[in-house]
Please model this.
Amino acid sequence: MNVLKHNGYTARVEFDDEDEIFVGRLAGINDIISFHADTVSDLKAAFHEAVADYIATCAKAGKKRDKP
Model:
């Protein structure tokens, strides 16, 4: 299994052969946070951005964020 780790979060990553993109989803939390990109470097950036957006959105909404 391919995984990325950042800021305490882990994401599972797969390659979508039909659309020719990498697709990732945060693992170990109840909220559904996904991201995608065409290249590995863009995928890592999209993952970091997804984690940051998730943390910021939870803080703004006053919601306790899930932690793995």
Remarks:
- DSSP finds one helix and four strands in the chain.
